Amino acid sequence: MGLAVCAILAGCALPLALQHGVPGLFEPIGLKLPPATDVAQTFGLGLDQVAISGNRFTSDDAIFKALDLDNVRTLAAFDPKAAREKLEALAWVATAELTRVYPGQLEVRITEREAFALWRHSGREVLIDRTGRELQDVAAGSVTHLPVISGEDAPRAAEALMVLLTRYQPLAERFSSAERVNGRRWSIRLQGGGRIELPPDGEAMALAELEAGGILQFLLSGTPAVIDLRAPGRVAVRTLPATAAGGGSPRTLAGIGSLNEHMAQRGGGR
């Protein structure tokens, strides 16, 4: 009934307007609507809660900063792809999974990387993962359960070396540290002072020949010596005085992966 009355009145008003010229009658009518974010919040779609899980070494503050929620008022306005990319750029974060749970919750599940070795470089001690990614600087001497490497590009080549050494269990158990020399080869130090100079290429074949010839057993027997495998097809052995042998602290390859539990007990990065 109301709509009919409006239609009749509108029909009556039209001839009068044409006759008397009512200003603005045919001007467009502007409807002022509230912003979409206000509408979303009105209907309960505001971003009210963020639930974070899986992070031990990545702080909550770092995660919130990467999410950049200061300018996000609703779930609809949140860009999960951009947020995931920022989260996975954080040092410890391997993967990040974000789920929008309506009406107003965001779930963030973090999978972190595992520390693989300790890299000594330019006065720093840095945890790295298997890919060579730097995870975190640590205080000197605070981490004693991981293999120690040094050298300019040691992180990039560390995993291949560790995989090779674990084929020789007695050697892996005596491992102390490894230095990447000139970005081409490894110099391995053993507990008790022994040292193995690997060639730039064919490290696996060189170690196999060392074991087959009984020289590896000689080195692992406790006699401090330098085994030089740099010349193809040739093994040079030089014994060291016991006083000059040194040896370094015990760091077996069995320690790989134990750091994550060790650091978690210390509080991690939270």
Layout of helices and strands:
Elements: H1 2-20, H2 36-42, E1 49-53, H3 60-67, H4 80-87, E2 93-101, E3 105-112, E4 117-121, E5 124-128, E6 134-137, E7 148-150, H5 154-165, H6 169-174, E8 175-181, E9 185-190, E10 195-197, H7 203-212, H8 215-220, E11 225-228, E12 236-239, H9 242-245, H10 258-266
Parallel strand pairs: 1-3, 4-7, 7-8, 10-11
Antiparallel strand pairs: 2-3, 4-5, 5-6, 8-9, 9-10, 11-12
Overview of the molecule:
- The chain is α/β, with parallel strands linked by helices and 270 residues long.
- It folds into 2 domains: 43-112, membrane protein fhac (Ubiquitin-like (UB roll), Roll), CATH 3.10.20.310; 117-258, Cell division protein FtsQ/DivIB (Rossmann fold, 3-Layer(aba) Sandwich), CATH 3.40.50.
- Helix content is 33%, strand content 23%.
- The protein is built from 10 helices and 12 strands.
- It has helices at 2-20, 36-42, 60-67, 80-87, 154-165, 169-174, 203-212, 215-220, 242-245, 258-266; strands at 49-53, 93-101, 105-112, 117-121, 124-128, 134-137, 148-150, 175-181, 185-190, 195-197, 225-228, 236-239.
- The strands form 2 sheets. It has a 9-stranded mixed β-sheet with strand order 6-5-4-7-8-9-10-11-12. The chain has a 3-stranded mixed β-sheet with strand order 1-3-2, covered by helices on one side.
Tell me the domain tally: 2
**Morphology call:** elongated
**Total number of beta strands:** 12
Q: How much of the sequence is in beta strands? A: 15-25%
* Oligomeric status: single chain
- CATH third-tier fold name of the largest domain: Rossmann fold
Looking at CATH, the homologous superfamily of the largest domain is Cell division protein FtsQ/DivIB
Given as residue ranges, the uncertain stretches (5+ residues, pLDDT < 50) are 1-20, 22-45, 261-270
Helix segment tally: 10
| Strand order within the widest beta sheet | 6-5-4-7-8-9-10-11-12
Provide the gyration radius in Å.
34 Å
Estimate the helix proportion, in percent: 25-40%
Distance between the termini: 67 Å
Main sheet characteristics: 9 strands, mixed
Known CATH architecture of the largest domain: 3-Layer(aba) Sandwich
Helix/strand/pairing category: alpha/beta
